[in-house]
């Protein structure tokens, strides 16, 4: 990846900070589920179908983790720092 967040070595410093990663995960997830729906939904026990199901769920789980960090955890941490260092309290 080309962004500064993705050049970090530690996983938790990357997650939720890179819009490019989230865009790629969204695209991969949509493509994976569309392919599964049109080509493999009639044969759910085939190897290709199972592989796409695992990949789709993995992409969705990682995307959810990115979005959770971006919209819940990181703003919460920012508010906590602001409240902790606020001189007016």
Biggest pleated-sheet summary: none
The secondary-structure class comes to mainly alpha
Rg from Cα? 18 Å
Mean of residue pLDDT?
88
Task: Bin the helical content.
Answer: over 70%
Q: What distance lies between the first and last C-alpha atoms, to the nearest angstrom? A: 42 Å
Molecular shape: elongated
Protein name: DUF3624 family protein
Pfam families: DUF3624 (PF12292)
Keywords: Membrane, Transmembrane, Transmembrane helix
Transmembrane segments: 21-40, 46-69
Structural key phrases:
mainly alpha, 3 helices, single chain, 89 residues, 72% helix
Task: Describe this entry's structure for a reader.
With 89 residues, the chain is mostly helical. It has a domain at 49-81. Helix content is 72%, strand content 0%. It is elongated. The N and C termini lie far apart (42 Å).
Short description:
By secondary structure, the protein is mostly helical. The chain has helices at residues 11-14, 19-40, 47-84.
Detail the topology: elements first, then pairings.
Blueprint lengths: L10 H4 L4 H22 L6 H38 L5
Helix pairs in contact: 2-3
């Amino acid at each position: 990846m080309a962004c500064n967040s993705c050049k970090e070595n530690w996983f938790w410093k990357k997650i939720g900070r890179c819009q490019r990663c989230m865009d790629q995960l969204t695209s991969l997830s949509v493509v994976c589920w569309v392919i599964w729906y049109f080509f493999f939904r009639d044969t759910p026990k085939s190897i290709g179908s199972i592989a796409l199901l695992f990949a789709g769920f993995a992409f969705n789980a990682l995307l959810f983790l990115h979005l959770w960090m971006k919209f819940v955890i990181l703003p919460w941490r920012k508010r906590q720092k602001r409240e902790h260092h606020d001189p007016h309290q």
